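Our preliminary data section would be incomplete without showing what the modeling component actually yields. Below, a chain of 102 amino acids is followed by its predicted structure, encoded as tokens that our downstream tools consume directly.
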Amino acid sequence: MHSLYFFNIIVGGMPKAKIFVDFWNFQLSVIGVMGNQYRMDWTKLSPWLMQAARSIVDADISFEGMQVYMSYYRNRPDDQRLRDWASNFLDRVPGVDVLMVS
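Predicted structure:
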């Protein structure tokens, strides 16, 4: 099983959480479970994960953002579309920061 995402929860005062997502491990796992036609609503992912974390620890947790790590190939047309989507949509979702490596 690959690590799809993880939380960094900081205590001392109100607990804070930052979510880290490995795009390709997450995406391939979603496809494996839901099928190739399923489209993730990335605007709802961090709120859903935060709700789950709050219910697990039974406390209020401050959302400190979600970082999505993604790799792509520069000379591949499909990856150029992925890069454009990540830059023009995903990176603009409130609280989401995309880090891309080619």
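The chain has one domain: 5-101. Residues 18 and 59 are 15 Å apart (CA to CA). Preliminary results of this kind motivate Aim 1 of the renewal.
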